[in-house]
Amino acid sequence: MNIRMLKGTVLLIAAVLATACNKDGLKGDAYISFALSSDYSSYSISRLTEKLSSSGNDIVLPDTNDFILSITGSDGGQVYKGPYGDRPDPIPVQSGSYDVALYSMEFDGPAFSSPQFGDTRTVVVASGEVLAVKFGCTQLNCGMRLEFEDSFRDRFFSSDIFIRSGEHSLPYTYTEKRIAYFLPGILKVICSDGNDEMTILSRQLDAADILTIKLSASGENSGGFSVAVDTSRNWLYEDFTLGSGNDGSTAEKALAVADLIMNLGAKEVWVAGYIVGGDVTTSNINLEPPFSKNSHLAIADRTAVSERAECAAVELPSSGDIREAVNLVDHPDYIGRKLYVKGDIENYFGCPGVKNIKEFKLE
Predict the structure, then answer these.
(1) How far apart are alpha carbons 159 and 182 in whole angstroms?
(2) pLDDT value of residue 58
(3) Residue 56 — very low, low, confident or very high, per pLDDT cuts 50/70/90?
């Protein structure tokens, strides 16, 4: 069974119950009435609070009547926003489409120990009808917690770590233990030395996903991944080792793309990666042909990438046969093949890349 189907057991249920009489004598009125699932019972809320406490969240969920109810029309107009317990019932509205939401707290940006619970849906009510909406209770935001091995702290002892979601960033110190919460989407773990930034990894999280990542540097990549689920949230655990442990002295010991940030300034070392695209800029990469630039290409540690930060640009020298042999303008079918290059590790298009190529091998 798909684990995400478990969340569906407490989703909102909306149904038209009956055609109502016009209670105010106004032609064309409609009404929305609300109810709560058993997830909002005192027993269920108490159990949920206990789970939050056991996972390191010093959070007490408000009384159900203090949850925030929001009703917004398709034109953006606010019909109601306030405590659930203070709402009129039913609420008179004009016929049309409405976004309805019930949530435990306001959440507009990243914050520690701030899980948001409730339910959201878009409903349509016709003139003269009463629409009954039954709210379920699931987690609406997502969370990430970082754990640092000594190898990682030793490697980046002078750097700052933070998690970025869109335009928002949240610092995450080496002593932090709490879960950081974000709106669902792509979360990036960033390392900064004050001048340059490096994206260590990026993960896309859905509502109710809680991802714990244990970070280490170099050594063998354990690659461990496991998933456990409870009735309220999806708990994800991952070991992530930054770097391959190779030194780049030979093609067999080639550095990975993830190693480049730790080897800036290295000369005449081997680097290996899968060719994933070209036409690189500081923020974008073209992943599919046709390609317009034969002066460079991009490699990554895996073939399925979508983020510029996961790639390294490789400069193809203007003289010699290397550019002619591997550029993507003439060889777009090379996408997905593994490339080994011997060159210098330098900043290239705003990220660590490879320049001054002396040798190459193509698998």
Answers:
(1) 23
(2) 60
(3) low
- 277-287 as b/e: b if 16+ CB within 10 A: bbbbeeeebbb
Q: By the 8 A CB rule, do 270 and 253 touch?
A: yes
The amino acid at 285: I
Closest CA to 115 of 163, 205, 49, 201: 49
Q: Which amino acid is residue 25, in one-letter code?
A: G
Name the 3-class secondary structure at 229. Answer: strand
Rounded to whole angstroms, the Cα distance separating 104 from 83 reads 10
Q: Considering only CA atoms, which of 333, 328, 323 is closest in space to residue 293?
A: 328
**Mean pLDDT, residues 137-153 taken together:** 91
This prediction has a pTM of 0.64
The CA angle 194-200-206, to the nearest 5 degrees, is 120
**Cα gap 324→316, rounded to integer Å:** 9
Catalogue the E-assigned strands of 74-196: 78-83, 91-94, 96-103, 111-112, 117-125, 129-135, 138-139, 142-148, 160-165, 168-171, 180-182, 185-192
What tokens does 23 get?
Answer: 């209670």
Q: How confident is the model at residue 263 (pLDDT cuts 50, 70, 90)?
A: confident
Question: What is the H or E stretch that residue 15 is in?
Answer: strand 13-19
- Cα–Cα distance list, 175 to 15, 57, 236, 320 (Å): 49, 16, 21, 51
CATH superfamily assigned to domain 251-362: Nucleic acid-binding proteins (2.40.50.140)
Please say whether the beta carbons of 357 and 343 come within 8 A.
Answer: yes
Q: Which residue in 214, 317, 216 sits closest to 262, CA to CA?
A: 216
| Contacts for 1 with CB less than 8 Å, ≥ 6 apart | none
Query: What backbone torsions phi and psi does residue 74 show, to the nearest 5 degrees?
Result: -65, -20
Domain with CATH 2.60.40.1120 in the chain: 3-139
CATH architecture of 142-242: Sandwich (2.60)
CATH code for the domain defined by 3-139:
2.60.40.1120
